[in-house]
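Q: My hope is that you can spare some time for a protein that puzzles me. Underneath my words sits a plain record pairing an amino acid chain with its backbone structure tokens. Those tokens are not coordinates but codes from a learned vocabulary of shapes. Thank you; the sequence and its tokens follow:
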Amino acid sequence: MLSARDRVVLEALLPPGGPEGLPGAFEAGFEEFERGFSADAPATMRLGWRAALFLAAWASPALIGRLPPLERLSVDDREAALEAMGKSRVYLIRQVFLLLKAVTSFGYGSTKAVRRAVGYDAR
């Protein structure tokens, strides 16, 4: 189950009212995917997912010289903080961010709303 803090992280990655009519993570129904993922994924993957959400909320603001948690920041600073994770000199931080983006993308791309918006699912 996603906490309010987790939702802030995911909304910074895939905000509502995306470009070209694409829905945001929660507009697309990401929570349903996440419930299934949390129930069915291997334990190490679930642990990595939870660690990625935690680090994005608590460590990413420090990478841009701000105090955590992420939800205290403006929308632009949230995006900058997450982007800083992907550009970090610390390999583990970059890898955790890659896992965060990968799982989020899997869930986002699997939703019917997104598939329709990109023309993959015409039904």
Observations:
- The helical segments are 4-13, 30-40, 43-58, 60-63, 75-86, 91-109, 112-117.
- The radius of gyration is 14 Å.
- The chain has one domain: 4-117.
